[in-house]
Amino acid sequence: MRRKIYFADIDFSYIFAGMMTKELIIQKLQLLPHPEGGYYRETYRSSEEIGAPWLPKNYRGKRNCSTCIYFLLSSDTFSAFHRIRQDEIWHCYDGSPLWIHEIDRDGKYCKTLIGRNIADGQIPQYIVPAGNWFAATVYNPDDYALVGCTVSPGFDFLDFELASRGDLIKAFPQHIEIIAQLTRI
Fold first, then answer.
1. Are the CB atoms for 6 and 14 separated by under 8 Å?
2. Helix, strand, or coil here: 152?
3. Separation CA 153–CA 157 (nearest Å)
4. Helix (H), strand (E) at residue 38
5. How far apart are CA 28 and CA 21, in angstroms?
6. 119-175 tens-digit pLDDT
7. CA pair distance 125, 113, nearest whole angstrom
8. Residue 81, pLDDT above cutoff 80
9. Average pLDDT in the 108-125 region?
10. Fewer Cβ in 10 A, N or C end of the chain?
11. Phi and psi for 155 in degrees, rounded to 5?
12. How far apart are CA 179 and CA 167, in angstroms?
């Protein structure tokens, strides 16, 4: 005789045992708080360097050829508008898709959804051009996004500028709402 099985009788814990949480990722990947928001850890810094004479004039000193970080952002915060002197390549690894918000040098605003669901129009890799102001937000509520960011010439905090809300609004008043949402200072 067949016995009826009810969902209450089934142990689903094995299914959820492997689920990642923001806290577990931060711990396992040894991530640290990032000044723009979220968490990060540098995973690569090339041993080769580019000397100051071979870099554009807006750089001070030498730079490594390339750097790469893990970057984790959760839906309860945001990556504030900032810019760097180099192109920055974003790669999706896990979790929610992520919006990249950009204001280019001409004041044009756009947002791009990066993620792993290509069939749904998401792109798994995106390049933010050097000098663009950019910020990021997690697409899904109550979720996180784990990405990687690659920079060449290599990242140095000398190349990092966190946006001032007042200065950015003065430069791009047409984008006051998004600037107010995605700045901290």
1. no
2. strand
3. 12
4. none
5. 11
6. 999 999 999 999 999 999 999 999 999 999 999 999 999 999 999 999 999 999 999
7. 10
8. yes
9. 97
10. N
11. -70, 145
12. 10
Closest CA to 146 of 44, 36, 70, 41: 70
Residue in the structure block whose two tokens are 């140095």: 156
Please name the residues in contact with 126: beta carbons below 8 A apart, sequence gap of 6 or more: 89, 90, 100, 112, 114
For strands 125-128 and 39-45, give the pairing: unpaired
Report the DSSP pairing between strands 144-152 and 87-95.
antiparallel
Average confidence score pLDDT of the chain: 92
Check: CB of residue 157 under 8 Å from CB of residue 106. Answer: no
Q: Which residue has the tokens 């430069």?
A: 171
User: Tokens 């094995």 belong to which residue?
Assistant: 14
Determine contact, residues 116/122, Cβ cutoff 8 Å. yes
Task: Please state, as a whole number, how many other Cβ atoms lie within 10 Å of the Cβ of residue 61.
Answer: 10
Distances (CA, A) of 148 to 11, 44, 106, 114: 35, 11, 27, 12
Q: How confident is the model at residue 14 (pLDDT cuts 50, 70, 90)?
A: very low
- Identity of the amino acid at 3: R
Q: State residue 47 phi and psi, 5-degree precision.
A: -80, -25
Residue type, 36: E
Residue 100 has pLDDT above 80, yes or no: yes
Question: Residue 126: what residue type?
Answer: Y
